[in-house]
Design goal:
Layout lengths: L24 E10 L2 E12 L2 E11 L19 H11 L5 H13 L7 H12 L3 H17 L1 H14 L3 H22 L5 H18 L22 H6 L3 E2 L13 E2 L7 E9 L3 E10 L11 E10 L2 E8 L26 E6 L4 E6 L5 E4 L6 E2 L4 E2 L1 E3 L5 E6 L16 E3 L15 E9 L5 E5 L6 E5 L3 E3 L7 H13 L6 E4 L19 H13 L3 E4 L12 H9 L34 E3 L2 E3 L12 H4 L31 H4 L3 H16 L7 E2 L2 E2 L7 E3 L7 H16 L5 E2 L1 E2 L8 H11 L6 E2 L12 H16 L1 H14 L4 E2 L18 E3 L3 E4 L8 E13 L5 E11 L6 E5 L2 E6 L5 H5 L3 E6 L16 E9 L12 E10 L2 E10 L11 E7 L22 E8 L2 E2 L5 E4 L4 E4 L10 E10 L4
Parallel strand pairs: 18-27, 22-23, 26-28, 28-29, 30-31, 39-43
Antiparallel strand pairs: 1-2, 2-3, 4-5, 6-7, 7-8, 8-9, 10-11, 11-12, 13-14, 15-21, 16-18, 17-20, 18-19, 20-21, 24-25, 32-33, 33-34, 34-37, 35-36, 35-37, 38-39, 40-41, 41-42, 42-48, 43-47, 44-45, 44-48, 46-47
Main location: membrane
Protein name: alpha-glucosidase
Keywords: Coiled coil, Disulfide bond, Glycoprotein, Glycosidase, Hydrolase, Membrane, Signal
């Protein structure tokens, strides 16, 4: 790096510190942005045998939305786009002589179109897949192309000179490029080199558009749709036909400087409309066209509006003439209505010309979605809808991504991209493994609605203040057995053992490694696990190994189901030898080499110069993939490959993991007599019906601990209730404190699993973690009846298992930004410690009375409280008004289910939370438990639902249990009623001369409880009442849940002599 005087020196101007996510990097200072290159000094430490060694390195990096500074150990460092733009502005005007050199060189290079772009894309894929022979050939191909295109060769040389800070050489190359371009222009009279022809045509298109009186215009103060890339300058932006307007407002750091022209430039009119039995259909004809650089318009559209149910309105806009790709009904059935719903919640209205539509809620007239006054773009590869959204509305959904700022969506104009990508969950604020185009809005006053955008193609959703525009496994069986024994020794609940792909024979799916996971050994292990009430869960990676004689491979060849390129050549995907990610991603191996001692050897010609469809690989509109408009095929297969049924990967990409889960679930249902369990990472809307979900490769950091709550809540909003994060962190090395806090939280994830990469972090390895795990996981086991019932409700009726606080308290604006606590079902509030070194937790207590689940102490809401929470503990509260079914603590759910069912009746204060029919001062609570044998079908012949209703009036209370049992159902697995605990059980003070003023009791006066079960007096030694804590416990009730029971209790008093 050179200082302002142009000489090597140590004068570094700190323009800003880049945020980083890599433990070795301690500091990154951007020192200048010149032209299109960031100059930065990276300070880092690297562990060595002698301890940590400090280092620093000077680097240059091409900017993008997420800057990857390629330092010596390949540490990725990320910078916020807005921060980088402001830093770029702060160096503008520096007088270093090289600034003008670099700027002029970059401007000149913009005139040259690069015809090697597709070959470079293939080269990038070959290197990523370690196909080095192909990479060498492709490199030679690029060099051959450069040798025949002098202008392009000059650009490459100029790029090298700039990156090497050889500015005198760069000036000479720039001048040669100018001379070549001018000579070419004189020769051709107009266009010059072929590369310049494309640029000039784009410029002519823009000129002709303007000359024709186009209504496209630059609106700097309105919403902006990003047209550029990180580091684009004004000339490059305008050459794309876009608008350039820098933004230096600290309140809008992410607004793009280069953006598409804005206006109502694409319009349709309603040419005809007719009613149907469920709504109406209409025909739309285009009247005004716009944004030609995004491709041709579809001139005629079909509008369908169906009032499917009273609470669901279905609006569909499609191509009138051509059947376009849609999510297959076989994967996501759309229930068809035979007639329009009566008393619908919503009304659909439209304007004829220009066409626009609005959806309003009938109850209050609020308009929920309104496209009037906004363009409707409908092109071959670009669709756009825009609607205002009230600034007061709180918005949620649109994923999947780890949101560092909580689950409430930020209205900063930054696109939220839906494109399934193999990105670690530890990388916050970028698109991850799933796509869920669902948006939920909560309005002032608590009303809410949802919008589901059913489309599986890549999608950007842009929200502004006012609008929306749309470990690695165990090495052998003995190690697995040791882990099981250590969990038992530590008295930590263990429900299942998971093995990664290490168990496979040469990484072949559906096989066992004969040396380390022999069949007889595995059968013995699984029998032991099943005898203990535990399970074995293996991973299946859908990469099918190329190996003639391997049934999965042979079947695929015979059925001709593997992916092919556009010319019908089977595609080879590369799975890294010895390592592969645990993701449901498509890496299908489709040639037929034999397996040699040193790897793969090809026996037949298998072309790797695959044919790609440029329009699919590089579409006219680039979604904000990876926050930098990365190619759609990055870290995945080419999107122009074709599936066995002719569907391009471009359309089906986001559905692959979903379809994998659906087919796996169906196959297991056919094979097994038990209910299938499938866990998937890649997902789409509807995945929750077939599979559980985990948030992906997170890291052992406190940030990841905090972010995990948002991931779990969003997945529940997306219809995947059985979800969790890798407890203690997957990547990196955890600490005892972090892991203890994580298991305290993770025990209350709907799906609770400790999972790690290289570093062992079983929960028994630290005393503090083991203690935290015992406490939290045993409580989880106790709560299984409550959780199981919540899952049953979500499966049957929809809804969540883990939910944000606003889900139950939408009118309370204090809940709308809360991503640090959550509810389990509607009756449990979980408030974890999320900061290192903390021994208290700041918790918001919503309206009502809440009981601490550990000691039954009481807090009253709504209010924010600072609650004590030492290491190994977590704050969990029961909501008054609920009856919580529980079971005895045990090491497995099977062991616990063999015992009785306990109930905790959480009563509100007298007169609070009144139910219909109650008198003033009465107390009421209710709840439900769903039970079955756990393996057969939901709502099968062995299933049982019991409802509980508790009421207290004055001195007397009762609890009624009512069972819903199918005729002829087996009751052998139904537990008896065990202990009933009543919280908030008050003994009012009777009229007696011994009562003092103010209602307190005289010294010596004692209140006690009596109870009856089905009118039989309950033994007094089984009735315990703590008047100070207001807790009544009835032990050994032994009630028959299948026949129902009535439990009564009341207060009696022993009075002192007067």
């Amino acid at each position: 790096m050179r200082n302002k005087g142009g000489q090597a020196g140590s004068e570094w101007e700190q323009l800003g510190t880049i945020a980083f996510r890599w433990p070795q990097v301690t500091k990154v200072r951007v020192t200048a942005l010149v032209g299109n290159t960031y100059h930065a000094r990276v300070h880092y430490s690297r562990a060595s045998e002698n301890g940590a060694a400090g280092n620093e390195v000077d680097v240059d990096a091409r900017p993008s939305d997420a800057i990857n500074l390629a330092v010596r150990f390949d540490a990725p460092v990320f910078v916020n786009k807005g921060v980088a733009q402001r830093m770029a502005h702060s160096v503008r005007g520096h007088e270093a002589p090289e600034l003008e050199v670099i700027r002029s060189c970059r401007e000149e290079m913009l005139h040259i179109e690069d015809p090697t772009v597709m070959v470079k894309l293939q080269l990038q894929m070959a290197v990523a897949e370690e196909r080095y022979e192909d990479a060498t050939r492709l490199r030679d191909q690029i060099e051959q192309m450069l040798s025949t295109d002098r202008a392009l060769a000059l650009v490459v040389a100029l790029e090298s000179a700039l990156e090497g800070h050889r500015y005198e050489e760069a000036v000479a190359l720039r001048d040669k490029l100018i001379e070549l371009r001018e000579n070419s222009a004189q020769t051709s009279k107009s266009m010059g080199t072929p590369g310049m022809i494309l640029w000039a045509l784009a410029a002519l298109a823009a000129l002709s558009l303007a000359g024709a009186g186009s209504n496209e215009r630059c609106v700097s103060d309105g919403p902006r749709r990003d047209c550029g890339w990180m580091g684009i300058n004004d000339l490059a932006c305008e050459a794309r036909g876009c608008c350039w307007a820098p933004v230096f407002d600290s309140n809008a750091p992410n607004r793009p400087w280069c953006f598409y022209k804005s206006a109502a430039v694409s319009e349709y009119e309603m040419a005809s409309v007719r009613e149907t039995g469920v709504g109406f259909v209409g025909e739309l004809h285009q009247t005004t066209s716009g944004l030609p650089y995004l491709g041709p318009d579809i001139k005629q559209l079909k509008l369908s509006v169906d009032y499917e149910t009273s609470s669901r309105l279905h609006v569909k806009i499609s191509d009138l003439e051509d059947k376009r790709w849609a999510v297959p009904e076989s994967l996501m059935p759309r229930p068809a209505a035979s007639r329009a719903a009566t008393n619908p919640l919503y009304t659909f209205s439209f304007e004829q010309r220009p066409f626009g539509f609005a959806v309003a809620r009938n109850e209050d007239g609020n308009v929920l979605f309104d496209t009037n006054g906004h363009s409707l773009f409908f092109k071959n590869q670009y669709l756009e809808l825009t609607s205002p959204v009230p600034e007061s509305s709180a918005l949620y959904g649109i994923g999947e991504r780890t949101r560092s700022d909580g689950i409430r969506l930020q209205r900063n104009g930054v696109p939220t991209t839906m494109w399934n990508k193999d990105t670690a969950a530890a990388d916050a604020d970028t698109n991850l493994y799933g796509s869920h185009p669902f948006l939920m809005a909560i309005e002032e006053g608590g009303n809410a609605h949802g919008i589901f955008l059913l489309n599986s193609n890549g999608m950007d959703v842009v929200l502004t203040e006012s609008t929306i525009s749309y470990r690695w496994g165990y090495s052998n069986v003995e190690e697995v057995e040791t882990v099981v024994k250590q969990y038992e020794k530590a008295d930590i609940p263990l429900e299942a053992m998971w093995t990664d792909i290490d168990y496979m024979d040469g990484f072949r799916d559906f096989t066992l490694d004969p040396n380390n996971f022999g069949m007889s050994q595995m059968r013995t292990l699984v029998k032991k696990l099943h005898a203990n009430g535990q399970r074995w869960v293996p991973i299946i990676d859908p990469g099918i190994k190329v190996d003639p004689g391997y049934p999965a491979y042979d079947d695929g060849i015979r059925e001709d189901i593997f992916l092919k390129d556009v010319k019908g050549v089977r595609y080879i995907g590369k799975v890294r030898t010895g390592r592969t990610r645990r993701a449901w991603v498509l890496l299908v191996l489709a040639c037929t080499p034999d397996l040699g001692r040193k790897g793969f050897r090809g026996d037949i010609a298998c072309s790797q110069n695959i044919s790609l469809n440029l329009h699919l690989e590089l579409p006219p509109y680039s979604i904000n993939n990876a926050n930098r408009a990365a190619p759609l095929s990055e870290k995945t297969i080419p999107v122009s490959l074709v599936h066995h049924d002719g569907t391009p990967e471009y359309d089906a990409h986001n559905l692959y993991g979903f379809s994998e889960a659906v087919l796996t679930h169906r196959a297991l249902a056919d094979i097994l007599t038990e209910r299938p369990f499938v866990l998937t990472r890649s997902s789409f809307a509807g995945s929750g019906k077939y599979a559980a979900h985990w948030s992906g490769d997170n890291s052992a950091t406190w940030d990841d601990l905090r972010w995990s709550i948002g991931s779990v809540l969003n997945s529940n909003l997306f219809g995947m209730p059985l979800v969790g994060a890798d407890i203690c962190g997957f990547n990196g090395q955890t600490t005892e404190e972090l892991c203890a806090r994580w298991i305290s939280l993770g025990a209350f994830y709907p799906f609770s699993r400790a999972h790690s990469n290289r570093y062992p972090q079983e929960l028994y390895l630290w005393d503090g973690v083991a203690a935290a795990a015992r406490k939290a996981l045993k409580m989880r086991v106790r709560l299984i009846p409550y959780l199981y019932t919540a899952f049953k409700k979500a499966a049957s009726e929809g809804g969540t298992v883990a939910s944000p606080l606003w889900y139950e308290f939408p009118q309370d604006a204090n809940t709308h930004n809360n991503s640090r606590q959550f509810l389990l079902g509607s009756g449990l509030l979980v408030s974890p410690v999320l900061e290192e070194g903390a021994d208290h937790v700041e918790a918001y207590i919503p309206e009502g009375t809440w009981y601490n689940i550990w000691d039954y102490s009481v807090v009253q809401g709504p209010q924010a409280l600072l609650l004590p929470c030492p290491l190994g503990e977590i704050q969990v509260h029961l909501r008054a008004g609920t009856v919580i079914p529980m079971q005895r603590a045990a090491r497995t759910t099977k062991e616990a289910a063999a015992g009785p069912l306990d109930l905790v009746v959480a009563l509100p204060p007298p007169g609070a939370g009144r139910a219909p029919g109650l008198r003033h001062g009465d107390q009421h609570a209710e709840g439900t438990v769903y039970m079955d044998e756990g393996a057969a079908a939901v709502d099968g012949p062995d299933s049982l639902t019991v409802r509980f209703s508790a009421r207290v009036s004055g001195q007397r209370g009762h609890l009624i249990t009512a069972a819903a049992l199918r005729d002829g159902a087996s009751t052998k697995s139904v537990p008896s009623l065990g202990t009933v605990t009543v919280l908030g059980a008050e003994c009012g003070y009777p009229e007696h001369p011994g009562k003092q003023a103010g209602g307190s009791l005289l010294t010596g006066m004692r209140a006690r409880m009596r109870a009856k079960v089905n009118d039989v007096e309950h033994p007094s030694n089984s009735v315990r009442y703590d008047a100070e804590r207001r807790v009544l416990e009835l032990a050994a009730v032994n009630g028959d849940l299948t026949r129902g029971a009535v439990i009564k209790w009341g207060c009696e008093y022993d009075f002192p002599a007067v």
